[in-house]
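WARN no homologs supplied; continuing
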Amino acid sequence: MTSQQQDITIGDPAPGPPGDTFGHIEVRGIDFVPPEERRGTPRELFTIWAASNVAYIYIVLGGSALLLGLSLWQALAVVVVGNAFWLGVGTLAVSGPAAGTPSVVIMRSMFGIRGNRVFGAGLNWLIAISYEAINLSFGSLAAFALAQHLGITVSTPLKLVIVGVIAVLTFTISIYGHATIVRLSPFFTAALIICCVLLAVFVFGHAKFDYAPAQPLSGGALWSALLVGVALITSAPLSWTVGADYARYLPKSVSKRAVLGWTALGGFVPAVALGIIGVVAGTSVDMSDPQTSLKDILPGWFYPVFLAVIVVGAITTNVLTTYSSGLCLQGLGVRMRRSQTVFIDGVLGGAITYYALFVADDFLATLSRWLELTVVVLGPLVAIYVTDIVLRRNRYDGLSLNDERPASAQWYTAGFNVAGVTAIITGGISAGLCIHTASWEGPVASALGGADLSAQIGPAVAAAVYVLLTRAVYRPRHSAR
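OK structure emitted
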């Protein structure tokens, strides 16, 4: 082990700390996890993903589906169909035990050593940092509202303290790493689920199951709204291209089906449940500002609990986001320990949050609009990743993937895998032509009356191009792996 792979163990001055133990800072980053350090079962993946997805954003997304003009049952269908993309996240996770490395390293097989620094590590790092800021901002705004509800004067200095406390709690868990995340996730999941069940009881108590939009949609307008809604919901699971990060410590022999299933369920179940709550709440209150409007249908004693759930949910979501962003920064070629890259990303995410909340008037909205457009690249990226797993039959050599020399198998053509780079560019362009968001409507979407096919067309084009070019350009090398 090199000095760059070593780390510090809190409370244990002895050299050679355990690689991945609860209460100690995780030693490993993007390097290969050898078989003797593998342990755990696929079932632990459920609470890891559930804890990070019992999040306020899914209530917002569910309410947004109803705001598109859909009926109650149409909006509920959109929530379920859009979240079916969690199967893709589960599929990505199966590469973790096979390779013993995180997703950002496995993607070298798709884009090449240099290409991955742009289209794998680079894109994922930018998106992760943006989500860190968004999540921290949501959590902070809820904490401000909670303090005000409790009768505390929320001054600017107090706001800064609140942002700092939430950030420290989040990034400390991320710095400690995998084993600590695994150990704490069941407790976070249980507490958040109990609170969300109560929330559902109160929301359903005010539900109007005979709800119908003022102007029911039909024909092309209905299909357009349905496709926009699916694309909106899909953006959440598509943002998790790091499924292997939390499965890489599992033994290579574990069931692929179990890894896929527990990962997908961990994201799908809370996302659908909270999305349904958001849809049902929209039948009785205005969901354009759920944090405020839900106050009207919640008991007075439960409203502060609801705000606290938003805060804790923002923390648990950001734990995984920041952990993976630190790995992405290492994947970019930054020669630092994982704990250091996580710290750097935490500080950067906190700085963006400060700018969004205290300096720029509309920066948070601008950041949200930017994240709406990330489906253009994330859809094709996930499709290429899944396709690569299928083409290779999930056979990855973790030690080889960590070899960045020009003679390595991942060097391809001058460090770029032509198949992967071409596929993500063509898939991204195709998705961009078909997307329909508040900030951009592609010409194809416009021609179709606003129908958003980006979540279908982009991935399909990327997968097809990747298969064709892989077979045409790299078939001998690819088949040998």
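The longest helix spans residues 121-149.
OK
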